[in-house]
Design goal:
238 residues, alpha/beta, TIM Barrel
Length: 238
Amino acid sequence: MKAKRIIAVLLGLALICCVLEYKGIIWHNSIFAMKYEIKGLDVSHYQGDVDWKTVAETEKYQFVYMKDTEGNDFTDDTFNKNWEGAKENGFLTGAYHFFSARSTGEQQAEHFISIVPKEAASLPPVIDIEIALTHDPAAIAHELMMMSDKFEEAYNKKPILYVTYDTYNKYVAGRFEGYDIWIRDIVKYPTLKGKQKWLLWQYCNRGRVDGIDAYVDINVFVGNQTDFDFKFMGKGIL
């Protein structure tokens, strides 16, 4: 009977933890992310009208990436407001583009560049690679390189590549070794095949942040404050 009671208690605790994690009140990956002092958010229209002043008052986050474009014709209608609001409240801001296989990299880059300001103090642009795994890797790599070249020419910064393990292994590994990687792993501490290391890690997709009414992605930077300043604020190279 005692063993059964213990099992029942443990199952009850496990159920409570699952509910709390589903609601974003706790997140198991936070344990692995604790050692990283630099945290940031990424947002899009899914987060609605963000109160950036309230977010800043939490004093937990230093940078924000926001969705700007997707493919060669979609623009996130919250981008301009998020860009200005986050900057006004002291966040280092950057924009990301959701890559599509339905148009060329050059067309998509031109769409992004037509909207995102060319500001020296902003973060490097990001190419979000979450496409299906059915495409020819060489063809996708070519379009990504064309887009990257356009971004670097326009912003004088090599873009960061946001990837899942699947898209990294299929389209990026062995082809973009000089690029910084932003990895999504909401389950465990991230690891990449080969010698390439990650720079940013999206460890949570159900974060609860004061000033944002919806769940939000939370990320960490791999280094300390000095590394962050060197990398992104013109004080050197990581």
